[in-house]
Design a protein that fits this description.
Layout: H1 3-15, H2 34-55, H3 57-63, H4 65-78, H5 93-98, H6 105-122, H7 131-135, E1 146-149, E2 154-158, H8 162-168, E3 184-189, E4 196-199, H9 204-212, H10 217-224, H11 231-240, E5 244-248
Antiparallel strand pairs: 1-5, 2-3, 3-4
Helix pairs in contact: 2-4, 3-4, 3-6, 6-8, 9-10
């Protein structure tokens, strides 16, 4: 049996708890030992659950040990790693638990935020623009300017106060439920190699989304059609947050 065939058979047996141990796993008695092979199966499950616990610590705390481990074990059985590099393992976890009975949207949203935090942390490096870059634009070029977002920037819209909940769990204290329990928008950035989560004010998400989809500054502002929208404050806030890699000037 070739090495590749052996690895495939071993992996298939690990994935299926009902499968007998592969024939090449003979023990001292010269035949496959199901009890010994079960140790490998358990080690795989423990390792994958541990990876999810490390990726979603706040979600684990909110759900409680028993529920989170049950969800993590179900996910590990359904979604095996596609790469030996474990950085990306668990990306689909929020989507997975959203389809599970008894899991509310608040837990799903917090998991989405934690996943975005990890993605931002591991995203490629790039220099962030600053307010000086914005000030260097001539008044004629500003309306037609476009924004190139930093690779680490993540925009999220939640039907729950997920960002406040996540923030309340960062200081080690026993958190309380955010009041009021209302939807929130969040921006995840990584200025100076430090991941930050910012709760966005009203209209900021819509403005940033328009820019991310290619609108000019003036097009993004006009799309909102809201008298309460402060163009300058939102634009400066977006740049100061570290979400912008570069500002592309418009035509004179």
């Amino acid at each position: 049996m070739s090495f590749e065939t052996t690895v495939r058979a071993f992996t298939a047996a690990l994935d299926d708890p009902s499968a007998p141990p592969p024939p090449m796993t003979g023990g001292r008695m010269g035949s496959p030992d199901a009890r010994r092979f079960a140790v490998y199966r358990n080690n795989v499950a423990v390792g994958l659950i541990g990876a999810l616990e490390a990726r979603y610590p706040v979600s684990r705390r909110i759900a409680g040990e028993a529920l989170f481990r049950a969800l993590a074990r179900a996910f590990a059985q359904a979604r095996r790693p596609r790469s030996p590099v474990m950085i990306a393992y668990g990306v689909e976890f929020p989507e997975f638990i959203a389809a599970c009975d008894g899991v509310g949207p608040h837990l799903v949203d917090v998991a989405r935020l934690e996943n975005a935090w990890i993605e931002a942390y591991h995203e490629q490096d790039a220099i962030a623009a600053n307010v000086g870059d914005l000030a260097a634009l001539s008044p004629e070029c500003l309306p037609g300017a476009r924004i190139a977002f930093h690779p680490a920037a993540r925009l999220l819209r939640f039907p729950t106060p997920a960002a406040s909940t996540w923030g309340a769990h960062q200081d080690g204290a026993d958190p309380t439920a955010p009041v009021p329990f209302a939807p929130q928008d969040a921006l995840v950035t990584r200025p100076d190699c430090e991941v930050r989560v910012r709760v966005l004010p009203p209209l900021a998400y819509d403005f940033a989304l328009q820019l991310r989809e290619g609108a000019t500054l003036i097009e993004a502002a006009q799309a909102l059609d809201a008298s309460a929208f402060d163009f300058g404050a939102h634009l400066v806030g977006l740049v100061e947050s570290g979400a912008v890699a570069s500002i592309l000037p418009g035509q004179n």
